[in-house]
Amino acid sequence: MKSRVVLLHCPTYDLTTVQSTLQRGIDLLGGLSTLFRKGEKILLKPNLLYGQSPQRCVTTHPVVFEGIIRILQDYGVVLSFGDSPGYGKLSAVARKAGLHQIAEQYHVSLADFESAHWHEIELGSNTIRIPLSSGSLEADGIVSLPKMKTHGLTRITGAVKNQLGCVPGFHKAEFHVRFPNTESFASLLVKINLLLKPRLYIMDGIMAMEGEGPGSGDPVQMECLLLSQDPVALDATFCKLIDLDPLFVPTIPAGERLGLGTAQEDKIELLGDPLEKLKRSSFNVKRNPPVKDVTFRALHPFRNLVLPQPRIDPERCKRCGICVEACPVPGKALAFANRKTNHPVYVYKRCIRCFCCHEMCPHKAIYIYTPWLGRQVIQFLGGGHTLSEKGRISPESESANVSASGR
Ligand code: SF4
Ligand code: SF4
Predict the structure, then answer these.
(1) Spatial separation of the C-alpha atoms in residues 205 and 60, rounded to whole Å
(2) How far is the CA of 358 from the centre of ligand 1 (A)?
């Protein structure tokens, strides 16, 4: 049987429009009764990377959250919601993102995303233990609500990656140290989905984030909602919308390989509105292939000459220290020499290129820079550039960063 993906035009965050569009999407997938039973406990899992206003497009929009709450409560399921933000307490982050107020209004409880249960999973030839939040395990089912965004490491952050938030707190960062390469990290994300088995994925793509996502990019109108039970097929459809090779998103080949879903066009039934009308080929996303694990290891001795690296724009840095806190490397790969006067400084030889610092900076002060030699390698491998790699940052700020980091 084919995986079904519903793509629907939705030009506005008007509640009535969003709710009726969501209802149409669910009907196209077979209706509520094929997905849920009355009285079940369902967890809503939005993307709450950190506390930001909905206009910044860092988090799932509150109107999409409200629309699905109304539909599911009318049907008779019991709802909770939760996520494990990159930093900040869940309730405070959800309030800033506008979700907490909606949850209070509809009596949707806050799930426990602090305590965890440990599970064993097979990853390659290893058995590893991973913690999953009690809130995600106690529910009868999960509705995942990813935001349509770019990502420095995985090209896009979509349906598959949204479940990383079911791993509580600092364990998420710890995974970057344990699985520093994109392929192994992608396999881990797929395994988390296979364990949690969300019933339904709904991607908020009415306003998306392009460029330096998932935290520092720019809002862009995509005017769509995507629904599917297959997160790999949903992410592959997102790729099609932005003209990105799905094979460059590490969770997609990993998801196919490990049996989570499919990205093959002949195995996907696309329902709803015509994709060509909603397609946006100018969407600013990294279009080069990710560095393969084997290449990453081979390049490691020359990493500062070749591999993409995070850099700080001194003009934008507010010296808040969130990037330092977010760095998962023991002993940290960036630190303040003098916080009163200067931005943090990278120690690139320690940096594992997880880009958590870039992801978490709330002031758009960290960007990903690919050295000249790295750009030649990318060209050789057949990739393109993001707009930022073509030079969003001025030469002045580049040289300021180089001198500050003592490289
Ligand atoms: S780079 Fe960003 S996160 Fe780091 S100290 Fe500056 S503003 Fe804060
Ligand atoms: S400095 Fe940034 S990219 Fe490097 S390891 Fe730390 S968080 Fe990851």
Answers:
(1) 9
(2) 9
Atom number, ligand 2, closest to the C-alpha of residue 356: 7
Q: Both tokens of residue 216?
A: 């520092």
Instruction: Report the candidate in 371, 364, 369 with the shortest Cα–Cα distance to residue 323.
Output: 364
**355/308 Cα distance (integer angstroms):** 10
Q: Which domains does the chain have, with CATH numbers?
A: 3-278 (3.40.50.11440), 293-404 (3.30.70.20)
Q: Name the residue at shortest CA distance from atom 2 of ligand 1.
A: 361
Per-residue DSSP letter, 312: E
Residues with CB under 6 A from ligand 2: 310, 326-327, 329, 333-334, 346, 351-357
Closest residue by Cα to atom 7, ligand 2, is 327
CB atoms within 10 A of CB 207: 19
Record the tokens describing residue 241, joined without a space: 């919308």
Tens digits of pLDDT across the chain (407 residues): 999 999 999 999 999 999 999 999 999 999 999 999 999 999 999 999 999 999 999 999 999 999 999 999 999 999 999 999 988 999 999 999 999 999 999 999 999 999 999 999 998 888 999 999 999 999 999 999 999 999 988 899 999 999 999 999 878 878 888 887 888 889 999 999 999 999 999 999 999 999 999 999 999 999 999 999 999 999 999 999 999 999 999 999 999 999 999 999 999 999 999 999 999 999 999 887 776 666 767 777 787 888 889 999 999 999 999 999 999 999 999 999 999 999 999 999 999 888 999 999 999 999 999 888 888 876 776 554 443 443 332 223 333 332 233 22
CA distance 236 to 40: 30
Can you tell me the distance from the alpha carbon of 54 to that of 49, in angstroms, rounded to the nearest whole number? Answer: 12
Rounded to 5 degrees, what are φ and ψ at 201?
A: -115, 130
